[in-house]
Write a structure and sequence with these properties.
By secondary structure, the protein is mostly helical. It is 65% helix and 2% strand. The protein contains 15 helices and four strands. A hairpin with a 5-residue loop joins strand 3 (385-386) and strand 4.
C-alpha cells in the first residue's frame, strides 16, 4: 500500500489556506541572512558590530529550526486524497534538488575562479548528493554552498515521512501532547550526548564545540526530532486539541526565548531553547489562520516574499560572501555605509531568488513534479490550489522546504 494516510479532521476549503505561514517563511529566511551577514563584519565600529550581533545572532539558529518544524507541519497538513508515496517523493525531489544543483554549480564555479585551493572531489560528491551533513568533518559540511547542509537533513525527513505519518497517525488524539513532550525531552538530551563525543574543541565564531555543532545542530538524525515535532503539532491542530497560547502569546514567547537563548549553555541555545516557542508559533498561526484570521503576514506582498524564500535561503550566503569580495574582501564601513551595503546585498539576493523562482523552481515543478496523467486531471480538492509548479500544491505554504 503506497497511499499516504491523512491526519486528523480535514479543514474546509476556506480554512485550509494558511498564507500567514508563507509570510513567516520569509521572515525566517531574512533572519538567517542577517545572521550570516554578521560573519562578514561589515561594521567598522565594534560597538555597532556588537549591536548587530545582539540583534541577529540567534536568528540563524532559530530560522533553521523554524523551517524544520514547518516542514513536518505543512507536509502533514497538506497530504492529499489518494496521494501516493512515489508522487510525494517526486514532488519533494523536484522542489529542492534542481535549485540545489544550480546553486551548487554556482558555488563550484565561483570557488574555482576566485579561490586558489584545489577542488576536494570527495566533498563535492557529498555535497552534490546531499550527504554532507552525515560527515562529522565541519569542513565538509560547510563547503561549497554552505547552507545546503540543511537540505541534507531535509532529504532524510522526506524519505522517512511516509513511515512517520503512518506511525504518528496511530497515536490517540488525547496522547499527542504527551508524545510532543517526549520529543522535546529528547531534543534537550542531545547536548548531553554531544559531550560524550571526542572533539570538544571550541568553534570560536559560533561559541559551540565542534561536536555540538554537528550532533546538536547539523546531524540529520537529531534534527529529525524537529521535523517529528512539526508532524505532531499538525495533528494536534487538525484534531482540534487545545493550544496553550494564541498566536500573539506564542509570538511573545518566541521573542522572549530569542532574547534569553544566548544565556543558556552552548549546547542548548542553537535548538532546544527555541523548539517549543517556534513550534507553538507555527501551530497557533495555522490554527488562527485556518479559522479565518488575516494579518499582515497573509498580505499579498508577504505571501509573494514567502514563495521565493527557498531560493532566497539557497543564494544568500553566496551573495554575502562574493558580494563582499566584489566590494572589497576586507572592507568594513561606518554604520550608514554598512547598512547600505547590507541593503544592497539583501536586494541582490531578493532579485536573484525571484529570478530562480521564476526560471528554475516554477518551470521545473510544472514540467516534472507530477506525472503526465496527474497533470491532466482537474484539481477537485478545494483545500489545494495550483502552486508555483502548476501541480496541485497547498496554498498553505507550498509544502515548505528550508529551508
Amino acid at each position: 500500500m503506497t497511499e499516504l494516510p491523512r491526519a486528523g479532521t480535514r479543514p474546509t476549503a476556506f480554512s485550509a489556506r494558511l498564507p500567514a505561514l508563507t509570510g513567516l517563511r520569509f521572515i525566517a529566511a531574512a533572519m538567517v541572512f542577517f545572521y550570516h551577514a554578521l560573519w562578514q563584519r561589515f561594521f567598522t565600529s565594534e560597538e555597532h558590530q556588537s549591536t548587530a550581533h545582539s540583534l541577529f545572532y540567534q536568528g540563524g539558529w532559530a530560522g533553521v529550526s523554524f523551517f524544520f518544524i514547518l516542514s513536518g507541519f505543512i507536509l502533514t497538513w497538506s497530504v492529499r486524497p489518494g496521494d501516493t508515496v512515489p508522487a510525494f517523493l517526486r514532488r519533494r525531489f523536484f522542489k529542492i534538488y534542481p535549485l540545489h544543483l544550480v546553486t551548487f554549480a554556482a558555488a563550484l564555479g565561483l570557488a574555482a575562479w576566485l579561490t586558489p585551493v584545489p577542488l576536494a572531489v570527495g566533498d563535492a560528491i557529498l555535497n552534490a548528493l546531499l550527504m554532507q551533513s552525515w560527515s562529522p568533518d565541519i569542513m565538509v559540511r560547510s563547503s561549497f554552498n554552505a547552507v545546503a547542509w540543511s537540505l541534507s537533513c531535509e532529504a532524510l525527513f522526506y524519505a522517512l515521512f511516509p513511515l512517520l505519518i503512518r506511525l504518528i497517525n496511530r497515536i490517540r488524539p488525547e496522547r499527542l501532547w504527551g508524545w510532543a513532550a517526549a520529543v522535546v525531552a529528547m531534543v534537550f538530551a542531545v547536548p548531553l550526548l554531544a559531550r560524550l563525543l571526542p572533539d570538544q574543541a571550541p568553534l570560536p565564531p559560533v561559541n559551540v564545540t565542534v561536536s555540538e555543532m554537528w550532533l546538536v545542530y547539523q546531524f540529520p538524525g537529531t534534527r529529525l526530532l524537529d521535523f517529528v515535532f512539526g508532524i505532531l503539532l499538525a495533528r494536534i491542530v487538525l484534531e482540534r486539541r487545545r493550544l496553550p497560547f494564541s498566536f500573539g502569546g506564542s509570538l511573545a514567547l518566541t521573542v522572549a526565548a530569542y532574547a534569553l537563548a544566548p544565556m543558556f549553555p552552548s549546547g542548548y541555545y542553537p535548538v532546544a531553547v527555541m523548539l517549543v516557542p517556534l513550534g507553538l508559533l507555527v501551530a497557533s498561526c495555522a490554527a488562527e489562520t485556518s479559522a479565518g484570521a488575516r494579518t499582515l503576514l497573509s498580505s499579498r506582498v508577504m505571501v509573494r516574499l514567502g514563495e521565493v524564500s527557498f531560493a532566497f535561503y539557497m543564494t544568500h550566503a553566496l551573495v554575502l560572501t562574493y558580494g563582499h569580495r566584489l566590494l572589497g574582501q576586507n572592507e568594513s564601513w561606518s554604520a550608514p555605509g554598512a547598512i547600505g551595503v547590507l541593503a544592497l546585498l539583501f536586494g541582490a539576493t531578493l532579485l536573484l531568488s525571484w529570478l530562480l523562482f521564476t526560471l528554475v523552481e516554477g518551470p521545473v515543478m510544472r514540467r516534472f513534479a507530477t506525472s503526465r496523467r496527474r497533470r491532466g486531471r482537474p484539481v477537485t480538492n478545494t483545500a489545494e490550489t495550483t502552486g508555483p509548479g502548476g501541480a496541485a500544491e497547498p496554498t498553505a505554504a507550498r509544502e515548505s522546504t528550508l529551508l
